[in-house]
Amino acid sequence: MNKTHLPKNHVLNDRTIHSINQDKYGTLYFGTDQGVILLKKNGDQLSFDKSNGLKNDLCEGLLRDDNGFIWMGNLNCILRFDPEHQSFKIIEEGNGFSRAGFRMRTAYQHSSGKCFGVPIRAWFGFT
């Protein structure tokens, strides 16, 4: 594993990191208390928060599914991010999710491909 030292003024230095994942292109995703940060293999970085795609700033869980989508626990909803098109689909209350929110770091993918997460009050599964 290669170690990377971030410069003192790097955007990740002043955020609480709740989760980390990587997409099929090698981009690293950091779920933080102020949104999600993407660090691409070429060094470019992207930031998403409530102002440009997220429903809420808090991004607690990250999970990559077998189709290459990145699922994000985003307080009281989940987001499906398409890395290829850089687009979000928001899935929230009314689609079986609780307004109470999600527990941090509860994303899990079973060997069958089904994904699971834990909202505050119960388990849920999605594909």
Main sheet: strands, sense, barrel = 4 strands, antiparallel
DSSP helix fraction: under 10%
Strand order within the widest beta sheet: 1-2-3-4
First and last CA, distance:
31 Å
CATH architecture: 7 Propeller
Give the CA-based shape. Answer: globular
Which structural class best describes the helix and strand composition? Answer: mainly beta
What number of structural domains do the residues give? 1
CATH homologous superfamily assignment: YVTN repeat-like/Quinoprotein amine dehydrogenase
CATH class: Mainly Beta
Sequence stretches where pLDDT stays below 50 over 5 or more residues: none
Mean pLDDT: 77
The rounded Rg comes to 14 Å
DSSP strand count: 11
How large is the count of helical segments? 0
- Characterize the quaternary organization of these chains: single chain
* Percentage of residues in DSSP E strands: 35-45%
Structure write-up:
- It is a single chain.
- The chain has 127 residues and is mainly β.
- It has one domain: YVTN repeat-like/Quinoprotein amine dehydrogenase (Methylamine Dehydrogenase, Chain H, 7 Propeller).
- The chain has strands at residues 17-22, 28-32, 35-39, 45-48, 61-64, 70-73, 77-82, 87-92, 108-109, 115-117, 124-126.
- The strands form three sheets. A four-stranded antiparallel beta sheet has the order 1-2-3-4, with no helix packed on it.
- The mean pLDDT is 77.
